Amino acid sequence: MRRWTGLLGLLLSLVFLYWALKGLHLEQVWNLVRQARYGWILPGVAVYMVGLVIRAWRWHYLLRPVARVSTRELFPLVTIGYMGNNIFPARAGEALRAVLLKRKHGVPISASAATILVERVYDGVVMLAFIFVNLPELTRLTADSGFVGDIRTLALGGTGLFMGALIAFLLAAAFPRQTENWAERVLARLPTRWEERMLPLVHRFLQGLAALGSPWEAWMVFATSVVIWLLETAKYWFVMHAFDFQVSFFALMLMNGVVNLATTLPSAPGYVGTFDAPGIAVLMAYGVPKPVAAGYTLTLHAALWLPVTLLGWYYLLKEGLSWREIRGR
Q1: Is the pLDDT of residue 19 over 70?
Q2: pTM for this one?
Q3: In which domain, by residue range, is 113 found?
């Protein structure tokens, strides 16, 4: 299964990369990248790091019913998780940070996995909000193309997936006893050895959802997620100033939403292609020439990938894990 998933991700990345680079003169794109004003990337990296700190605080907030782990202690694990997502397939960094959290603080993996899934669902909801807020303007700009229809299809499909998961998590957190009883009845239909293994996992998973037990706490997680993604959009805005084009902050919010929803598809490590092709397409819809859109998107991708990957490697080396242990875990 792992091999087939990797092959599918590689194939999709190649398809998206071909779509992104089709019709481009790579020498022209390279010249634009070389001539970029890279001083603008530094404040972009700075605001992105602030966003990582807020991500660590959000995880601390979600983990409170399970374990008291400070934001300062969680920040290295968050960066390690993003590093893992960048170099391993299938977002394996999420599993890696859950394992490290258990290793360092004794938090059960099933409980921390619940909090990580909640993070991802809220992130998806915010990305969809970014798309729907800006879809009318994009429709006006590209009324005669099929591109808007493709984004609308992506957004509607994502809405069903992420909103369905969010509602399920909120209901499970609001009615934990009833959810537990329902899960016990379902598991009772399985062979005894499976039921005995899965019941404790279900209990700990529900414990990991406890932070969503009140409307105020659920709203806090959502508001924090909005701030996180606005800060990431601010990085898009800073990097834009390294190139000779201008679009609105709202257009970059739309780009952020589209590319991050696209990266939920299987891909090669680092979201090669699945990040780049949709980003270039959104900018072209706003009238940015394709070579400029490609140079910007590829530079932005590198600026998002490299700093957190290096920082994550630094923290991982401090953990003292070997490459074999990382792969095994």
Answers
A1: yes
A2: 0.89
A3: 44-175+208-328
